[in-house]
Amino acid sequence: MRLTDERLSSTHPNNRRLRADGGKRATDDAQSDGPTFPGSLIVVSNRQPYRHEYADDGATSDAEDPDGGSSASAADESEPETRADGAAPETETGVLAGDKSVSVDEPTGGLTAGLDPVLQQVEGTWIAWGDGEADFDVADERNRVAVPPDDGSYTLRRIDLSEEAVDSYYYGFSNRVLWPLCHGFTDLVENRSNDFDWYRTVNERFAEAVAENATADSTVWLQDYHFALAPRMIRESVPQSTTVAQFWHIPWPTATTFQRCPSGGQLLEGVLGNDLLGFHVDRYADNFLECVRRFLPSATVDRDRRIVSYGGHTTRVVATPMGVDAASYDQDARSASQTQLSSLFEKYDIAEDTVIGLGVDRLDYTKGIPERLAAIERFLERNPTWHGEFTFIQKATLSRTDIQAYERYGDLVRSEVERINQRFRTREWKPIVYTEDYLDSDDLCALYRRADVMVVSPLVDGMNLVTQEYIASSVDGDGTLLLSDRTGAHETLGSHAITIDPTDTDGFAGRLEAALSMPPHERKQRMNTLRNRVFDMDLDSWMETQFDWIRRVRSEIGQTGPQDPDPDGERDFDRKSGSGRGSGSQSQSQSRSRSQSQSDSDSSSDRDSHEPTQPV
Ligand code: GDG
């Protein structure tokens, strides 16, 4: 795992899409080889693929800074989500808005970068929150701007949200209710007044924008938990033949947990406006179907075929694990040089010949960082011979710091790092190097490649893309992966990783010892299989699968014609609460009392070690 100064040229056998140019973004290749989409596509996501900002000096559009980008600090809470979602730290050439110079941030990784070429190809529309300060000055009177900036092949339609809307919809219901709830942290759910109303209002705003753009042959593809209500709103306002699909990137909780969800009935009803609903793994799809069965009694749930009929509409539920652009990580890792790595090690004061453990996470309470630190501490207690020889690098990206639970979590992580370092450090060495610096993708890939052991230990994680990025970057084939069995990634990669229970400190430390002493041939064997899987199930292949399902659902809609109207003219929650939208609290209490009277059969698979003592 020592890098040479040479750029390596070998290509992974499965790496059909490896780009020769070493560039970061999928461009021409993706357009010719990548996923093809049938018909017109409208993507809806919270974060946008391109953001317009005023250039720092107000005079030039260059916006260069010594750290390699105007937005290189992950400490800027205005955009950590964007980066963690793979969009945007790179600032490109600017345009002018009035007499002010504007720079444009482009997507550099993840789903955003993967979808961008697809949208270019189909000349589609992307609808997203416009969070850049110059976003609306460069847009037309309907808040549209042509992107990418250099060829303008598709339309970015921006939604203008007030500070109050963002605080309530994004930092409120999305991330104080849905995020903790879906991850089983019900004790962290904060149900503030107005947050759900804002969530609904913002979902309406997005749904209206979709309705303005949708045609009979459009497919609307919504991303994630910020839009649980929008699918039904959209379904009711677009032509019957328009396909509505959504991918839910985080876990769907068990019914035991979901019964605590404020306005849970409205959320279920909302997502059942989709024709197609995707999750990463079977478990989340099954949890969803169980929630529908329990909390929407008039719905018909076909568990085997994963089809729900409710209110005269049919939703197909699928489990399709998301991948990464493996070729791009492979390429960037191969391009890493010893010089680049040396300067990183110098910056963080790490001896070059140290054995490296690595963790890369958003600073989020789901990611199990304190548990990881506890295991490292136990490992150091038990293995004095590793002192001075092993360094653990924890790269943590600040996230959602407006929310107290995140602030407290960050304080805990930092103080634990400090304490463990105080306990074991020597004059020349400290066991844990902790950084919140944003790493550009070259540095990240160089570190992935160099890491002897990658530690992925979330308490719960929908998928975990870092796992796959590490594998794709392990071009020397000799790294080992410790992987929590509570991640979606474990379902597909667990058999060849070293499985850990993140809360079993002794077991975790033992696995770390095992990883560090694993014979080279076993490492290579395991990594070879892992790499084959990650390349086979990469981002393009995931999109192809999604698009195949969309095609299938479209043809089903086409064959059956307009779906049956609701035979009773009303839907469950309307009927039970006696009103339509806006009846959240009544729906909630009825949903609770109904579910509480039923026995909980699913608690064995529930990850709720965080059950609240009080109802939320
Ligand atoms: C959600 C679900 C699901 C982080 N710091 C830097 C950096 N990152 C990038 C990583 C990775 C991404 O952030 C984190 O993705 P994960 O999948 O690990 O986790 P979440 O952000 O929680 O994502 C998750 C995912 O959605 C997709 O469906 O897998 O389960 O929770 O791409 O590389 N990237 C760079 N520098 C950093 O400092 N370049």
Please tell me about this protein's structure.
- This protein is of the alpha/beta class and 616 residues long.
- The strands form three sheets. A ten-stranded mixed beta sheet has the order 6-7-5-1-8-9-10-13-12-11, with helices on both faces. The protein has a six-stranded parallel beta sheet with strand order 16-15-14-17-18-19, sandwiched between helices.
- The radius of gyration is 24 Å and the shape is globular.
- The chain has 21 helices and 19 strands.
- The longest helix has 22 residues, at 539-560.
- It has two domains: 97-319, Rossmann fold (3-Layer(aba) Sandwich), CATH 3.40.50.2000; 326-536, 3-Layer(aba) Sandwich (Rossmann fold), CATH 3.40.50.2000.
- The model is unreliable at 1-32, 58-93 and 562-616 (pLDDT under 50).
- The N and C termini lie far apart (49 Å).
- Residues 74, 83-84, 86, 109-110, 249-250, 322, 360, 362, 395, 397, 438-439, 441, 444, 461-466, 469 line the site of GDP-alpha-D-glucose.
Care to give the gist of this entry?
The protein has 616 residues and is of the alpha/beta class.
* Strand tally: 19
Q: How big a fraction of the residues is strand?
A: 15-25%
Instruction: Please give the CATH class of the largest domain.
Output: Alpha Beta
CATH topology of the largest domain: Rossmann fold
Number of domains: 2
User: From the 3D coordinates, which CATH architecture of the largest domain would you assign?
Assistant: 3-Layer(aba) Sandwich
Roughly what is the average pLDDT, rounded to an integer?
83
Q: Would you identify the CATH H-level superfamily of the largest domain?
A: Glycogen Phosphorylase B
Helical element count?
A: 21
Q: In one word, what is the shape? A: globular
- Which secondary-structure class do the elements indicate? alpha/beta
Please bin the fraction of helical residues: 25-40%
Distance between the termini: 49 Å
Radius of gyration (Å): 24 Å
Biased composition (Basic and acidic residues): 18-28, 568-577, 604-616
Protein name: Trehalose-6-phosphate synthase
Region (Disordered): 1-116, 557-616
Biased composition (Low complexity): 584-602
